[in-house]
């Protein structure tokens, strides 16, 4: 099965987009804009560049990505030409800004009479509960502490994180713990991706230093990619430590599930013996009542 290509996870694509983003932003200060082009303190060209990159960051279609990059390179050429003082390019930039502002004003007028959508606040996440007893320390519980029949928990895999599910709906405290751990894992993955991108840049800088006549003098044996490589190894060590910790935790959870199953089976047999004993007693009572009945 062919693996889906996700552009934002590709090092080469990220390098190209970051380079284009920086090239576009570097041209903003070179273009003289009249006062009416500003709708605040932010440069309108800089604002539109950031807005478009933010809008297209999650695109996975090759057609959309190629089209967006083509528009970006054409915009960079237009801004660079306008910054060089070419009147036609400068007039085109001002005309595009006027069109964007006119579209925004028209949209605000259309929506002026509409009721504003009321955003519902998400339910607050429960805060950490200090001193909370861990499940692995209190499970399985003895029979006298149960209010009813014993329910065997289920060991599930929540995004590669082991957890015991006791009931539905799931506890909000457990949701918070899982969300925190998933965010931690995602930060590690993002850190590895960033370090890989910087390593690629560092190798290019190292190659450039090698081609220079002076060579890598003054670097004390260090290269541009050393720190990025060290950061990547640190993130990988953290991930491996978490994986080992999750493995140990999963084994403990599995032991709890097995012990809960054993206790549930024992208690089921005890209930059956109790039912049989009560049935036998009722049968004996009926027999005794039958023998005591006068003729």
Helix and strand sequence: HHHHHEEHH
Shape: elongated
Number of helices: 7
Major pleated sheet: 2 strands, antiparallel
Spans where pLDDT lies below 50 across 5 or more residues: none
Strand content: under 5%
Describe the structure.
There is one protein chain. The mean pLDDT is 84. Strand 1 and strand 2 (161-165) form a beta hairpin. The chain is built from 7 helices and 2 strands, in the order αααααββαα. With 295 residues, it is mainly alpha-helical. A two-stranded antiparallel sheet has the order 1-2.
What's the arrangement of secondary structure elements?
Elements: H1 11-26, H2 44-56, H3 62-83, H4 87-110, H5 135-138, E1 154-158, E2 161-165, H6 172-211, H7 226-291
Antiparallel strand pairs: 1-2
Features:
2 strands; mainly alpha; 295 residues; single chain
Give a concise summary:
The protein is mainly alpha-helical and 295 residues long.
